[in-house]
C-alpha cells in the first residue's frame, strides 16, 4: 500500500528492553516546575501548563488540531486512528494543577473524541555545531490490559515542510520521542525518514527501540521523555532518553547523505502531543483490530511541561515571521533567456529567466499570469540566476511557486545555494505530489541571512531518480 503520512504502521519489537526491572515504590509529584536548563543550555520554548482548570492551552504556543485529518491531508491522520479531535475542554484542557489533560471519550453511539495539539513554532533545530533538546514530563493514560486496548498516546515532532503539504512524509523527518500503545509498560522511540515503503528507515515501521519505564510503570507515574539532536559530534546523532537514561540512538552514518539532508536541512521541527484511539500501531502490537471490546474511555494523558533547549553553536532559533504570500507574479524585468543579472531579490523572479541550467526544460504554465514554468526537475538538476541583488536588507525567507505530479512516495528538496551549485544550501523546503504538474502552491522556507549581490542557484535533491517538482517563480523577503 502506498502511503504518505506520519506514524502509519510500526511493529512490536518483542519483549521490551529492561522488562525485568524491579518496580520501586516512588512518590512522584503530579506537577513539578520546569527544571532550569543544564549548564551550557538555553531555553528557547517552554510551557508549564499552569492555566485555570478547564481552560484551553495557550494559543500563542499551540495550535489545536480538530477533525479526522488535516484539510487536504490523508484521512484518519494517515494512521487508521478512529477518534475525532476536538477543542472541547472535556478532551483537551488544563487541569488546574499544572498539567495539560488530554482525555479520549466515547459517546453513547460509540463515537470517540480526543485531543491533539502542535506548537505554533516550526523552527526547532540545533544551531550549527550545537545541539537541540526536546523534553516533556508525562504520565501516560493510567489504564492497562483489555481496558487499554486501542489507547495510543504520543509526544513527537514533525519536519516543518509537512505543515501545509501533508504528503511529503517521511522525507521531512519525524521523531517519535514517546509513543505507547495498549497500556503496555514501554516507551517507544522512533525515527521516520527517507521514502515509503522501505528505504533507509525501513518504512513504514521506522528505526525503532523501546524499553520499560524506569521504576514505576509508564502508566502509573510521571516520567521525563527527552530527544536530543547533536551536531557537536561527528557523525551527528539523534538520542532518545527516559528519565535521563538513553535507550535509542541513530547516527548520521546509518542513513545516506541525501536522506539525512532532507530531514535536517529544512527550517526545523514542530512538536505534537495527542492521544489517539485505534489504528495501525495498536493493531500491530495486539494482533487484533483496536479498539478492543473491553476498552474504557476517559483515562487522560497528563503533560506537566514541554520545554525545548539549545546548546552551543551560535545563535538560537527565533520565531519566524509569518510569510507574506506574493501577489500574482508580474512580468519579469529581466529577459526570460540569457538573464544578464542585476534583478532584485525582493521582486518576483520568473523561474524560466535562468541564464544557465542542467536537466531543466521550459513549458507553458496554466498558473495565474500564464507564461512558462521550468520542470519537471529531479535529483541533480539546477538553474542559475545571475546577479540577484539582496542589497543592504537581509533576506530571511524564500518562497517558490511549485507543483508536482510525482508518484506516491517520491519527494525531494528545492534548495537555494549561493554562487556555486555545490555550495551548502542556505535554505530549502521539501515537496511531494501536489495533485498534478499544474496544480500550483506557494511554499515558504527560511534562509540564512543574505545581503549583497549573488548568483543564485535553485538546486533539486531527491533520494529517488524520478522528477518531483516544477517551479513557476520564486522570491525572497527580508
Write the layout of secondary structure elements.
Layout: E1 41-47, E2 62-64, E3 84-85, E4 92-94, E5 100-102, E6 105-106, E7 112-114, E8 116-119, E9 131-139, E10 151-159, E11 174-179, E12 187-192, E13 207-211, E14 223-230, E15 237-242, E16 245-251, H1 257-264, E17 269-277, H2 280-284, E18 301-311, E19 349-350, E20 356-358, E21 362-364, E22 372-377, E23 382-389, E24 395-404, E25 412-418, E26 427-431, E27 436-450, E28 453-461, E29 469-477
Parallel strand pairs: 3-7
Antiparallel strand pairs: 1-18, 2-8, 4-5, 5-18, 6-7, 8-17, 9-14, 9-18, 10-11, 10-17, 11-12, 12-13, 14-15, 15-16, 19-29, 20-23, 21-22, 22-29, 23-28, 24-27, 24-29, 25-26, 25-28
- Low-pLDDT regions: 1-5, 11-27, 315-340
State the share of residues found in helices, binned by percent: under 10%
- Helix count, per DSSP? 2
Strand content: 35-45%
Spatial gap, N to C terminus: 43 Å
Q: Give a short account of the largest sheet.
A: 8 strands, antiparallel
Category by helix and strand content = mainly beta
Q: Judging from the principal axes of the Cα atoms, what is the shape?
A: globular
The strand count comes to: 29
Radius of gyration: 23 Å
Mean pLDDT: 87
